[in-house]
Amino acid sequence: MARGRASGYPGQRAAILAASARLFAQHGFAATSMNQLAQACGLSKPALYHYFADKDALLAEIAEAHVRQLLAVVRDVEAACADPAARLPLLIRRFVEEYAGAQDAHRVLTEDVRFLDDARRTRILDIEREVVAGFADAIAALRPQLAGRAKPLAMLLFGMINWLFTWFRPGGRLDYAALAPLVADLFLHGALNMGPE
Amino acid sequence: MARGRASGYPGQRAAILAASARLFAQHGFAATSMNQLAQACGLSKPALYHYFADKDALLAEIAEAHVRQLLAVVRDVEAACADPAARLPLLIRRFVEEYAGAQDAHRVLTEDVRFLDDARRTRILDIEREVVAGFADAIAALRPQLAGRAKPLAMLLFGMINWLFTWFRPGGRLDYAALAPLVADLFLHGALNMGPE
DNA sequence: CCTACCGATCGGTAGG
DNA sequence: CCTACCGATCGGTAGG
After folding, report:
1. Please, what are the domains in chain A?
2. Cα first-last separation, chain B
3. Nearest residue by alpha-carbon distance to C1' of D1
Protein backbone atom coordinates (compact mmCIF):
# COMPACT_ATOMS: atom_id res chain seq x y z
CA MET A 1 0.00 0.00 0.00
CA ALA A 2 2.84 2.35 -0.89
CA ARG A 3 1.97 6.02 -0.42
CA GLY A 4 -1.72 5.22 -0.11
CA ARG A 5 -2.83 7.46 2.73
CA ALA A 6 -4.40 5.21 5.36
CA SER A 7 -6.67 7.19 7.62
CA GLY A 8 -6.07 6.55 11.30
CA TYR A 9 -4.19 4.04 13.35
CA PRO A 10 -6.14 0.90 12.35
CA GLY A 11 -5.93 1.74 8.67
CA GLN A 12 -2.22 2.37 8.85
CA ARG A 13 -1.71 -0.90 10.72
CA ALA A 14 -3.64 -2.80 8.07
CA ALA A 15 -1.68 -1.12 5.29
CA ILE A 16 1.59 -2.09 6.94
CA LEU A 17 0.44 -5.70 7.36
CA ALA A 18 -0.58 -5.92 3.71
CA ALA A 19 2.72 -4.46 2.52
CA SER A 20 4.65 -6.75 4.86
CA ALA A 21 2.81 -9.84 3.67
CA ARG A 22 3.62 -8.92 0.10
CA LEU A 23 7.32 -8.31 0.74
CA PHE A 24 7.74 -11.36 2.98
CA ALA A 25 6.03 -13.53 0.37
CA GLN A 26 8.15 -12.06 -2.41
CA HIS A 27 11.62 -12.05 -0.87
CA GLY A 28 11.26 -14.25 2.19
CA PHE A 29 11.05 -13.08 5.78
CA ALA A 30 14.77 -13.07 6.58
CA ALA A 31 15.68 -11.30 3.36
CA THR A 32 13.19 -8.47 3.89
CA SER A 33 14.55 -5.51 5.82
CA MET A 34 12.60 -3.13 7.98
CA ASN A 35 13.97 -0.29 5.86
CA GLN A 36 12.51 -1.82 2.69
CA LEU A 37 9.25 -2.22 4.51
CA ALA A 38 9.19 1.37 5.78
CA GLN A 39 9.88 2.65 2.29
CA ALA A 40 7.12 0.50 0.80
CA CYS A 41 4.71 1.96 3.34
CA GLY A 42 5.91 5.51 2.84
CA LEU A 43 6.96 5.63 6.49
CA SER A 44 10.19 6.08 8.38
CA LYS A 45 11.55 3.03 10.12
CA PRO A 46 10.86 4.44 13.59
CA ALA A 47 7.27 5.07 12.51
CA LEU A 48 6.99 1.41 11.67
CA TYR A 49 8.11 0.53 15.16
CA HIS A 50 5.33 2.73 16.47
CA TYR A 51 2.80 0.24 15.11
CA PHE A 52 4.62 -3.05 15.70
CA ALA A 53 7.03 -4.10 18.43
CA ASP A 54 9.43 -5.90 16.10
CA LYS A 55 9.78 -7.75 12.84
CA ASP A 56 8.53 -11.03 14.34
CA ALA A 57 5.32 -9.34 15.49
CA LEU A 58 4.49 -8.53 11.87
CA LEU A 59 5.10 -12.11 10.79
CA ALA A 60 3.05 -13.49 13.69
CA GLU A 61 0.11 -11.19 13.09
CA ILE A 62 -0.03 -11.90 9.34
CA ALA A 63 0.07 -15.66 9.87
CA GLU A 64 -2.34 -15.74 12.81
CA ALA A 65 -4.97 -13.57 11.14
CA HIS A 66 -4.83 -15.78 8.05
CA VAL A 67 -5.10 -19.09 9.86
CA ARG A 68 -7.94 -17.73 12.04
CA GLN A 69 -9.77 -16.79 8.88
CA LEU A 70 -9.28 -20.35 7.56
CA LEU A 71 -10.72 -21.75 10.79
CA ALA A 72 -13.69 -19.40 10.43
CA VAL A 73 -14.34 -20.86 6.97
CA VAL A 74 -14.30 -24.37 8.43
CA ARG A 75 -16.82 -23.39 11.12
CA ASP A 76 -18.96 -21.61 8.55
CA VAL A 77 -19.12 -24.66 6.28
CA GLU A 78 -19.84 -26.96 9.23
CA ALA A 79 -22.76 -24.75 10.24
CA ALA A 80 -24.14 -24.24 6.74
CA CYS A 81 -23.80 -27.73 5.31
CA ALA A 82 -26.56 -30.08 6.38
CA ASP A 83 -25.47 -33.05 4.25
CA PRO A 84 -22.23 -34.39 5.79
CA ALA A 85 -21.10 -36.00 2.53
CA ALA A 86 -21.27 -32.65 0.76
CA ARG A 87 -19.07 -30.90 3.31
CA LEU A 88 -15.69 -31.93 1.94
CA PRO A 89 -16.19 -30.78 -1.66
CA LEU A 90 -17.50 -27.47 -0.35
CA LEU A 91 -14.54 -27.11 2.02
CA ILE A 92 -12.09 -27.69 -0.83
CA ARG A 93 -13.77 -25.08 -3.00
CA ARG A 94 -14.00 -22.51 -0.22
CA PHE A 95 -10.36 -23.01 0.74
CA VAL A 96 -9.06 -22.58 -2.77
CA GLU A 97 -11.05 -19.35 -3.01
CA GLU A 98 -9.75 -18.23 0.37
CA TYR A 99 -6.14 -18.98 -0.55
CA ALA A 100 -6.53 -17.21 -3.87
CA GLY A 101 -7.66 -14.07 -2.09
CA ALA A 102 -4.83 -14.15 0.45
CA GLN A 103 -1.86 -15.53 -1.40
CA ASP A 104 0.73 -13.38 0.31
CA ALA A 105 -0.48 -14.24 3.80
CA HIS A 106 -0.71 -17.88 2.80
CA ARG A 107 2.84 -18.02 1.60
CA VAL A 108 3.97 -16.37 4.82
CA LEU A 109 2.00 -18.95 6.79
CA THR A 110 3.48 -21.92 4.97
CA GLU A 111 7.06 -20.74 4.61
CA ASP A 112 7.99 -18.29 7.34
CA VAL A 113 6.09 -19.33 10.47
CA ARG A 114 8.85 -21.79 11.32
CA PHE A 115 11.14 -18.88 12.11
CA LEU A 116 8.92 -17.61 14.94
CA ASP A 117 9.80 -18.28 18.56
CA ASP A 118 8.13 -21.27 20.22
CA ALA A 119 5.34 -19.35 21.95
CA ARG A 120 4.07 -17.53 18.89
CA ARG A 121 4.61 -20.51 16.58
CA THR A 122 2.68 -22.81 18.90
CA ARG A 123 -0.32 -20.46 18.96
CA ILE A 124 -0.50 -20.60 15.19
CA LEU A 125 0.13 -24.33 14.90
CA ASP A 126 -2.66 -24.98 17.40
CA ILE A 127 -5.14 -23.15 15.19
CA GLU A 128 -3.76 -24.97 12.16
CA ARG A 129 -4.44 -28.26 13.91
CA GLU A 130 -8.08 -27.27 14.43
CA VAL A 131 -8.36 -26.56 10.72
CA VAL A 132 -6.89 -29.96 9.86
CA ALA A 133 -9.26 -31.59 12.36
CA GLY A 134 -12.18 -29.91 10.58
CA PHE A 135 -11.09 -31.42 7.28
CA ALA A 136 -10.53 -34.80 8.93
CA ASP A 137 -14.11 -34.71 10.25
CA ALA A 138 -15.39 -33.94 6.78
CA ILE A 139 -13.40 -36.88 5.36
CA ALA A 140 -14.78 -39.23 7.99
CA ALA A 141 -18.28 -37.93 7.24
CA LEU A 142 -17.77 -38.64 3.55
CA ARG A 143 -16.75 -42.24 4.20
CA PRO A 144 -16.78 -43.52 7.80
CA GLN A 145 -14.40 -46.38 6.96
CA LEU A 146 -11.66 -43.78 6.55
CA ALA A 147 -12.08 -42.37 10.06
CA GLY A 148 -8.85 -43.99 11.26
CA ARG A 149 -6.83 -42.39 8.48
CA ALA A 150 -8.79 -39.16 8.20
CA LYS A 151 -6.13 -36.90 9.69
CA PRO A 152 -3.22 -38.09 7.52
CA LEU A 153 -5.50 -37.92 4.49
CA ALA A 154 -6.45 -34.36 5.41
CA MET A 155 -2.77 -33.47 5.53
CA LEU A 156 -2.18 -34.96 2.08
CA LEU A 157 -5.08 -32.90 0.79
CA PHE A 158 -3.52 -29.78 2.29
CA GLY A 159 -0.27 -30.79 0.66
CA MET A 160 -1.89 -30.68 -2.76
CA ILE A 161 -3.69 -27.39 -2.19
CA ASN A 162 -0.76 -25.65 -0.54
CA TRP A 163 1.60 -26.73 -3.28
CA LEU A 164 -0.78 -25.31 -5.85
CA PHE A 165 -0.13 -21.88 -4.44
CA THR A 166 3.58 -22.36 -4.10
CA TRP A 167 3.83 -23.09 -7.79
CA PHE A 168 1.20 -21.04 -9.47
CA ARG A 169 1.28 -17.28 -9.29
CA PRO A 170 -1.72 -15.40 -10.66
CA GLY A 171 -1.80 -15.15 -14.41
CA GLY A 172 0.24 -18.27 -15.09
CA ARG A 173 -0.76 -20.74 -17.77
CA LEU A 174 -2.12 -23.26 -15.31
CA ASP A 175 -3.94 -21.27 -12.74
CA TYR A 176 -5.47 -22.60 -9.56
CA ALA A 177 -9.04 -21.87 -10.63
CA ALA A 178 -8.64 -24.59 -13.26
CA LEU A 179 -6.80 -26.89 -10.87
CA ALA A 180 -9.23 -26.72 -7.95
CA PRO A 181 -11.77 -29.10 -9.55
CA LEU A 182 -8.92 -31.45 -10.44
CA VAL A 183 -7.83 -31.54 -6.80
CA ALA A 184 -11.40 -32.24 -5.67
CA ASP A 185 -11.86 -34.93 -8.33
CA LEU A 186 -8.62 -36.69 -7.55
CA PHE A 187 -9.05 -36.60 -3.81
CA LEU A 188 -12.73 -37.55 -3.67
CA HIS A 189 -12.37 -40.46 -6.10
CA GLY A 190 -9.26 -41.60 -4.31
CA ALA A 191 -10.86 -41.43 -0.89
CA LEU A 192 -14.03 -43.18 -2.03
CA ASN A 193 -12.25 -46.01 -3.87
CA MET A 194 -9.15 -46.76 -1.85
CA GLY A 195 -8.99 -49.91 0.28
CA PRO A 196 -11.06 -49.80 3.48
CA GLU A 197 -8.11 -50.94 5.57
CA MET B 1 30.68 -33.15 9.19
CA ALA B 2 31.97 -30.90 11.93
CA ARG B 3 35.62 -31.58 12.75
CA GLY B 4 35.51 -34.81 10.73
CA ARG B 5 38.78 -34.77 8.87
CA ALA B 6 37.90 -35.00 5.18
CA SER B 7 40.83 -36.31 3.18
CA GLY B 8 41.54 -34.24 0.10
CA TYR B 9 39.74 -31.59 -1.85
CA PRO B 10 36.73 -33.64 -3.02
CA GLY B 11 36.05 -34.97 0.48
CA GLN B 12 36.22 -31.51 1.99
CA ARG B 13 33.88 -30.15 -0.66
CA ALA B 14 31.35 -32.90 0.03
CA ALA B 15 31.57 -32.29 3.78
CA ILE B 16 30.90 -28.58 3.28
CA LEU B 17 27.90 -29.30 1.06
CA ALA B 18 26.41 -31.68 3.62
CA ALA B 19 26.86 -29.21 6.47
CA SER B 20 25.41 -26.39 4.34
CA ALA B 21 22.37 -28.44 3.40
CA ARG B 22 21.72 -29.21 7.04
CA LEU B 23 22.06 -25.59 8.19
CA PHE B 24 20.10 -24.12 5.28
CA ALA B 25 17.32 -26.67 5.90
CA GLN B 26 17.30 -25.94 9.62
CA HIS B 27 17.47 -22.15 9.70
CA GLY B 28 16.71 -21.11 6.13
CA PHE B 29 19.21 -19.90 3.55
CA ALA B 30 19.09 -16.18 4.34
CA ALA B 31 19.34 -16.77 8.09
CA THR B 32 22.43 -18.96 7.81
CA SER B 33 25.71 -17.04 7.91
CA MET B 34 28.95 -18.06 6.26
CA ASN B 35 30.53 -17.78 9.69
CA GLN B 36 28.13 -20.35 11.16
CA LEU B 37 28.80 -22.58 8.20
CA ALA B 38 32.58 -22.27 8.53
CA GLN B 39 32.33 -23.06 12.22
CA ALA B 40 30.14 -26.11 11.56
CA CYS B 41 32.78 -27.37 9.10
CA GLY B 42 35.71 -26.69 11.42
CA LEU B 43 37.14 -24.29 8.84
CA SER B 44 37.95 -20.61 8.67
CA LYS B 45 35.70 -18.53 6.48
CA PRO B 46 38.46 -17.88 3.92
CA ALA B 47 38.93 -21.63 3.69
CA LEU B 48 35.25 -21.95 2.84
CA TYR B 49 35.72 -19.45 0.03
CA HIS B 50 38.54 -21.56 -1.28
CA TYR B 51 36.03 -24.30 -2.08
CA PHE B 52 33.02 -22.24 -3.19
CA ALA B 53 32.83 -18.87 -4.91
CA ASP B 54 30.03 -17.53 -2.74
CA LYS B 55 27.00 -18.43 -0.67
CA ASP B 56 24.74 -18.80 -3.71
CA ALA B 57 27.10 -21.35 -5.23
CA LEU B 58 26.53 -23.59 -2.22
CA LEU B 59 22.77 -23.31 -2.54
CA ALA B 60 22.89 -23.93 -6.29
CA GLU B 61 25.12 -26.98 -6.00
CA ILE B 62 23.05 -28.59 -3.23
CA ALA B 63 19.81 -28.11 -5.15
CA GLU B 64 21.17 -29.11 -8.54
CA ALA B 65 22.85 -32.29 -7.29
CA HIS B 66 19.63 -33.32 -5.57
CA VAL B 67 17.34 -32.68 -8.51
CA ARG B 68 19.79 -34.44 -10.87
CA GLN B 69 19.67 -37.44 -8.57
CA LEU B 70 15.86 -37.35 -8.74
CA LEU B 71 16.01 -37.30 -12.52
CA ALA B 72 18.40 -40.26 -12.43
CA VAL B 73 15.83 -42.19 -10.40
CA VAL B 74 13.18 -41.41 -13.02
CA ARG B 75 15.45 -42.67 -15.81
CA ASP B 76 16.37 -45.73 -13.80
CA VAL B 77 12.73 -46.67 -13.23
CA GLU B 78 11.88 -46.03 -16.87
CA ALA B 79 14.67 -48.38 -17.95
CA ALA B 80 13.96 -51.07 -15.37
CA CYS B 81 10.18 -51.18 -15.47
CA ALA B 82 8.82 -53.21 -18.38
CA ASP B 83 5.15 -52.95 -17.41
CA PRO B 84 4.08 -49.31 -17.98
CA ALA B 85 1.19 -49.53 -15.51
CA ALA B 86 3.59 -50.57 -12.75
CA ARG B 87 5.86 -47.58 -13.29
CA LEU B 88 3.97 -45.00 -11.25
CA PRO B 89 3.68 -46.99 -8.01
CA LEU B 90 7.38 -47.79 -8.26
CA LEU B 91 8.24 -44.14 -8.92
CA ILE B 92 6.28 -43.05 -5.86
CA ARG B 93 8.03 -45.57 -3.65
CA ARG B 94 11.48 -44.75 -5.00
CA PHE B 95 10.92 -41.01 -4.58
CA VAL B 96 9.78 -41.29 -0.99
CA GLU B 97 12.90 -43.33 -0.26
CA GLU B 98 15.05 -40.82 -2.08
CA TYR B 99 13.54 -37.87 -0.25
CA ALA B 100 13.91 -39.65 3.08
CA GLY B 101 17.63 -40.11 2.43
CA ALA B 102 18.17 -36.49 1.38
CA GLN B 103 15.78 -34.46 3.51
CA ASP B 104 18.11 -31.52 3.97
CA ALA B 105 18.81 -31.16 0.26
CA HIS B 106 15.14 -31.62 -0.48
CA ARG B 107 14.08 -28.85 1.83
CA VAL B 108 16.70 -26.58 0.28
CA LEU B 109 15.35 -27.45 -3.17
CA THR B 110 11.74 -26.72 -2.28
CA GLU B 111 12.23 -23.64 -0.11
CA ASP B 112 15.42 -21.80 -1.03
CA VAL B 113 15.93 -22.21 -4.77
CA ARG B 114 13.67 -19.24 -5.40
CA PHE B 115 16.36 -16.95 -3.97
CA LEU B 116 18.89 -17.87 -6.67
CA ASP B 117 19.58 -15.56 -9.59
CA ASP B 118 17.71 -16.28 -12.82
CA ALA B 119 20.47 -18.20 -14.56
CA ARG B 120 21.10 -20.68 -11.78
CA ARG B 121 17.42 -21.01 -10.87
CA THR B 122 16.45 -21.72 -14.47
CA ARG B 123 19.01 -24.53 -14.73
CA ILE B 124 17.43 -26.23 -11.73
CA LEU B 125 13.84 -25.61 -12.76
CA ASP B 126 14.59 -27.11 -16.18
CA ILE B 127 15.72 -30.35 -14.57
CA GLU B 128 12.70 -30.25 -12.26
CA ARG B 129 10.47 -30.00 -15.30
CA GLU B 130 12.04 -33.16 -16.73
CA VAL B 131 11.29 -34.95 -13.49
CA VAL B 132 7.66 -33.82 -13.58
CA ALA B 133 7.47 -34.90 -17.23
CA GLY B 134 8.70 -38.36 -16.21
CA PHE B 135 5.90 -38.63 -13.68
CA ALA B 136 3.38 -37.32 -16.20
CA ASP B 137 4.45 -40.04 -18.64
CA ALA B 138 3.98 -42.67 -15.96
CA ILE B 139 0.50 -41.31 -15.21
CA ALA B 140 -0.44 -41.39 -18.89
CA ALA B 141 0.92 -44.94 -19.10
CA LEU B 142 -1.22 -45.97 -16.13
CA ARG B 143 -4.37 -44.61 -17.75
CA PRO B 144 -4.14 -43.13 -21.26
CA GLN B 145 -7.39 -41.19 -20.80
CA LEU B 146 -5.55 -38.95 -18.34
CA ALA B 147 -2.86 -37.97 -20.83
CA GLY B 148 -4.30 -34.47 -21.21
CA ARG B 149 -4.19 -33.81 -17.50
CA ALA B 150 -1.09 -35.85 -16.70
CA LYS B 151 1.19 -32.91 -15.97
CA PRO B 152 -1.12 -31.09 -13.53
CA LEU B 153 -1.85 -34.43 -11.85
CA ALA B 154 1.88 -35.05 -11.53
CA MET B 155 2.24 -31.68 -9.84
CA LEU B 156 -0.52 -32.48 -7.36
CA LEU B 157 1.24 -35.75 -6.58
CA PHE B 158 4.47 -33.85 -5.94
CA GLY B 159 2.48 -31.51 -3.75
CA MET B 160 1.47 -34.38 -1.51
CA ILE B 161 4.91 -35.93 -1.32
CA ASN B 162 6.76 -32.66 -0.85
CA TRP B 163 4.40 -31.58 1.89
CA LEU B 164 5.00 -34.87 3.66
CA PHE B 165 8.60 -33.85 4.16
CA THR B 166 7.81 -30.30 5.12
CA TRP B 167 5.66 -31.56 7.98
CA PHE B 168 7.24 -34.74 9.16
CA ARG B 169 10.71 -34.73 10.60
CA PRO B 170 12.27 -38.13 11.32
CA GLY B 171 11.05 -39.75 14.50
CA GLY B 172 7.67 -38.01 14.60
CA ARG B 173 4.49 -39.88 15.42
CA LEU B 174 3.35 -40.03 11.83
CA ASP B 175 6.41 -40.71 9.80
CA TYR B 176 6.64 -40.74 6.05
CA ALA B 177 7.39 -44.47 5.83
CA ALA B 178 3.84 -45.06 7.03
CA LEU B 179 2.41 -42.33 4.83
CA ALA B 180 4.04 -43.36 1.54
CA PRO B 181 1.59 -46.23 0.91
CA LEU B 182 -1.29 -43.89 1.79
CA VAL B 183 -0.10 -41.41 -0.83
CA ALA B 184 0.17 -44.17 -3.43
CA ASP B 185 -3.25 -45.59 -2.50
CA LEU B 186 -4.99 -42.24 -2.62
CA PHE B 187 -3.39 -41.10 -5.85
CA LEU B 188 -3.71 -44.36 -7.77
CA HIS B 189 -7.35 -44.93 -6.81
CA GLY B 190 -8.12 -41.31 -7.55
CA ALA B 191 -6.41 -41.38 -10.93
CA LEU B 192 -8.03 -44.67 -11.94
CA ASN B 193 -11.55 -43.68 -10.90
CA MET B 194 -11.87 -39.99 -11.64
CA GLY B 195 -13.95 -38.87 -14.63
CA PRO B 196 -12.35 -39.44 -18.04
CA GLU B 197 -13.01 -35.86 -19.12
C1' DC C 1 53.61 -21.42 -9.13
C1' DC C 2 50.52 -24.78 -6.98
C1' DT C 3 47.34 -26.33 -2.96
C1' DA C 4 45.24 -25.32 1.17
C1' DC C 5 44.66 -22.50 4.40
C1' DC C 6 45.36 -18.43 8.50
C1' DG C 7 44.28 -14.02 11.50
C1' DA C 8 42.38 -9.81 10.67
C1' DT C 9 39.58 -6.75 8.63
C1' DC C 10 37.13 -4.70 4.43
C1' DG C 11 32.72 -1.75 3.05
C1' DG C 12 27.87 -1.98 4.09
C1' DT C 13 23.80 -3.08 6.45
C1' DA C 14 21.04 -5.66 9.85
C1' DG C 15 17.37 -4.87 13.71
C1' DG C 16 16.49 -1.65 17.07
C1' DC D 1 7.48 11.26 13.76
C1' DC D 2 12.32 12.65 11.89
C1' DT D 3 17.61 12.69 11.80
C1' DA D 4 21.03 10.53 13.60
C1' DC D 5 22.88 6.99 15.38
C1' DC D 6 24.24 2.26 18.44
C1' DG D 7 26.40 -2.69 18.95
C1' DA D 8 26.78 -6.67 16.07
C1' DT D 9 27.16 -8.97 12.40
C1' DC D 10 26.63 -9.55 7.34
C1' DG D 11 29.05 -11.70 2.89
C1' DG D 12 33.34 -11.48 1.11
C1' DT D 13 38.59 -10.56 0.70
C1' DA D 14 43.10 -8.36 1.96
C1' DG D 15 48.28 -9.63 2.75
C1' DG D 16 51.33 -13.32 4.09
Report:
1. 8-51 (1.10.10.60), 55-193 (1.10.357.10)
2. 52
3. A47
